[in-house]
Amino acid sequence: MNAPEPGLAPPAVGQALPHESAHLHVAGAAAYIDDLPELAGTLHAAPALSLKAHARIVRIDLEEARAVPGVVDILTAADVPHNAIGTVLHDEPVLAEGQVLWVGQPVALVLARSVKAARVAARRVRVDYEDSAPGPQLDADAALQAHSFILPPARLRRGDAAAAIAAAPQRVQGELRIGGQEHFYLEGQIAYVVPREDGQLLIHSSTQHPGDVQHQVRHALGLADADIVVECRRMGGGFGGKESQAAWFAVAAAVAARKHGRPVKLRADRDDDFLITGKRHDYLVRYAAGVDQAGRLRGVQLMFASRCGYSADLSGPVNDRTVLHADNCYQLPIAGAGGLAIDSYRLKTPMQSATAFRGFGGPQGMLGIENLIDDVARALGSDPLDVRRANLYAADGSGVTHYGQTVDDNLGPRIIDTLARDCDYAGRRKEIAAFNAGSPVIKRGLALTPVKFGISFTATHYNQAGALVYVYQDGSVQVNHGGTEMGQGLHTKVQQIVADALGLPARAVRVTASDTGKVPNASATAASSGTDLNGMAAQQAALQVRARLAAVAARALGCTESEVLFRDGQVRGGGRALGFGELAKQAYLQRAQLWSDGFYATPKIHWDKASFTGRPFFYYAWGAACSEVAIDTLTGEMKVLRVDILHDVGRSINPALDIGQIEGGFVQGMGWLTTEELIWNEQGKLTTHAPSTYKIPVAGDVPPVFNVKLWDGANREESIYRSKAVGEPPLMLAISVLHAIRDALAAARGGGPVRLDAPATPEAILRALHWQPGKLGSAGKLGSDPDFGKLGSGKLGSDPDFPRA
To answer: Which of 676, 682, 728, 763 is the catalytic position?
Structure first.
């Protein structure tokens, strides 16, 4: 029905079209929530935050705050009908009640006639505290030792790892600490709540998950979902930070709006945003492995312990994904005489609840196994790329993951080989060795690391989406779907998909704000699944409308429905043509339905969380990056000199957007691993809570040579236009930067093991230069150490006293 004909313009899908809001962005005309006109009577809210990490509230004194001109009211926990929310568990107080759990916890909410008055008054709320008995430990080691868990630990066992390690010719063990990461979205957290008739609410929320905001407000206020409409036209960035944690801001504003019957806006000050909201989980990783002479894994033990903060939030699925991505591209020893043991500990700590962040636990799992592989190579005196290749999943697609999914579309070996050839890895390796031999201060390093990232929500029920497509009498088209736009271009891709389905140029299709009143029960725009889910749902809706239009066109053109061609805004058949608008008008007059809904549920996936078995992912996205760096051994300063990337996006719907996501994701990952450092002091206060102390990458940090290419190949699975997700996978390409730094450090240290924690700040690089191996965390140690495998509080993976999931 839609086969191409000579002389016609190319379809919208596959074209490098600009972002659908680009012209608005550059003109400053793209409306974000704080740009919306404020209704008469709008009140502004500001939270008063706790100054203690773990203490009992003795008294809240509001007198000085109430005296600030313009203050209308100050809410406390007593004003919240149901003072506990949470995406998974309802374990998060809206306002502190009886005790405070972290520095930055909202204790009260000031309402005033201006933003300034609200913020001034919030800082004049006085709270008397009484220090509690020692509670949750801030330090990961202490929390692990104290068995301070926010959720039960999880274990995965395949064979006898300890026996396999003991029988292996060579053994290696090590430790890695991985820092967290602040989302640092350009648009901070914000909600604007407008009361409607009969107790209903309209909520403008900067959120990746309007449905979750709806549910949390419903729970806190005791309403029904149908009483609440959540709308989001666009966000100024999200990166996971607005998946679950946008809800608190909406709930707080909704409680105030409900009480006063007036619109309430809550826009967080950047410092408050830092203190209130969660970050990427930081991790303590310990590992041990037995390998053969070629570095192939024979037995592996992995321990991941993440600081989750004061509440569960999304820590369960985040840590589960860490376990699922602990293989990256490598066949872990799960069969025959091999063995694998993975322990995942979810630590309760008196700090902001860690939350979703691009990659959702996957980057930490992949970084752990990459560190292990690199340590094996350093210990054996091998090129790390050779050891990586020795452990890759079978190129014939017969490899099986530790959770039972067959890796039947294994692009890893081909992508690695192609990139290594195109970037001249072998030749540059020799050049760098020669440079380092003649350079006593500046040392260069090179690393090529792969990426395999599973695409789908591990919570299987989230893998569904809905959409609506409307064709109006004039032929204009409007689309609404359950996904949200945070700058990544989801609306643009959906626009292209619907345009192609109806044979229109992309500009003829208008995508409207995400709205729980139009598409209900929508999943979060997360897990890199936005286009996969919503694009397919929108296409289904558009094709249903097209089928009805085709029936009208066939009668008008004197041909069969199968002969009708939709292209270039024209409808052709039987040697004649109609304009799309003209056809729409005729269809209306003939009472044909010109709108439809579409629904899509990802096929083939299933997952048993208890046993860590199943097929949690519809497919894998693959990639590889080669990074070259230079370090100054006197100051610890580092510069990324060159990056080459080859990344798999299937058949790209929009190459410009995909390359932009790859570049942006890589740079954000580079920031996580090199410059972005979160520091809490002994009192539990986050001290890096502003741009002056927390350093994200800037333009000058982008590599001067930055080559990005897309792998040429279609998705093996039947995704939308055989494309692949591109939101999260590119972030993990930046692991190559950290390992290039490790390579430079190895050159500076004269070879042997390297201990480098992330982020690799200048201080961390200097520590790594002077690090001396010890029994605990002796990265790269080989031999028969009798204490081998005793990592931390007990034998890794075999402590009978450790709680089981």
So the answer is: 728
